[in-house]
Amino acid sequence: MKISLGQLALLLGGALEGPAEREVSGIKGLEQAGSEDLSFLANPKYAPLLESCRAGVVLVSRGQKVPEGLAVIRVDNPYLAYAQVLTKATAKPYEPLGVHPKAVVEPDAVLGADCSIHALAYVGAGAKLGDRVVVHPGAYLGPGVRVGSDTVIHANAAVYHDCSIGSRCVIHGGVVIGADGYGFVFDGERHFKIPQIGIVQIDDDVELGAGTTIDRAANGRTWIQRGVKTDDQVHIAHGCVIGENSLLVAQVGISGSSTLGKGVVLGGKVGVAGHITIGDGAMVGGGSGVAQSVEAGEVVSGYPVMPHRLWLRTRGLVKRLPEIFSRVKALEDRLGRDEEK
After folding, report:
1. Which end of the chain is more exposed for a tag (fewer CB within 10 A), N or C?
2. Where is the active site (predicted)?
């Protein structure tokens, strides 16, 4: 895509400092970019690279100092602007494929306009798909499933019966939505299965990474609210509520009936116990274990979790434990000798 700096500034709502008629056609890093490329400075620690940058234009923050002669577009968030440009540059017009002859769509399923149902995909009885929904090969949509417009369901994803997915969602390969929650009760001889009769509800603009699993509620719903993004291989158990715009990084596991507020961030491999609440805007460091509720806005880490700064100090002390132990042992030996005297 070739675009002038003037058009770029207009697209991004930025302030151009440079020739409006100059055109760029590529996007590269600060060190690799040439005169026909756009680059960006998202992290201030890389600002010294601007001195030798040869890019046709660089996206920078409003207050960033730049070398004389370097064309820049000043924006509020250079990283977001970069993502917006890259999205526009790589966008391809949608071409509906219809229903492939080797796909199976049950007679009473309802498809919206311009859907694409690929080979070996299955759409169950009573399912209802919005306009321009794409179902890739091997994907399974069970009976009664609802899918909103412009949602893409990638290969081998499985959506169990009666679950719902909103509009503009992306469901990556291998995702399982609506499998039974892990519910059993011991009757003295065996583990008696508790029927899981609820559903999974996924709101608009959600993206689920490959291999993510979301269990159906025992009753009611497991609810993934608008704008939630999960990394690959995240597990959300039955009855959980994941608040709007929360981010769950790879291998997060959330036990049943836990509730996350809006904008919560869980780092990789965070484990969350059941029936707890994590407040709006809270952040949990990677590898942490959350066994009690976390207040809104808290930043915690560790196992069990504690304020992040305290955890950093604690972690530093752990490395010194052998040294501290030796010093304590020496003190004990010395005190013992003094008492014998």
Report:
1. C
2. 238
Residue 191 falls in the annotated catalytic set: no
Distance CA 106, CA 126 (A): 8
**Tens digits of per-residue pLDDT, 107-162?**
999 999 999 999 999 999 999 999 999 999 999 999 999 999 999 999 999 999 99
Beta-bridge partner residues of 213: 176, 235
* Whether 26 contacts 38, CB under 8 Å: yes
Best CA proximity match to 66, nearest among 15, 27, 11, 117:
15
* Catalytic position from the list 118, 172, 235, 238: 238
Identity of the residue numbered 98 = G
CA distance 74 to 222: 42
Please measure the distance between the N-terminal and C-terminal CA atoms of the chain and give it in whole angstroms: 88
Token duo for residue 209: 């990474």
State the DSSP H helix or E strand holding residue 16, giving kind and residue range, or none if neither.
strand 15-17
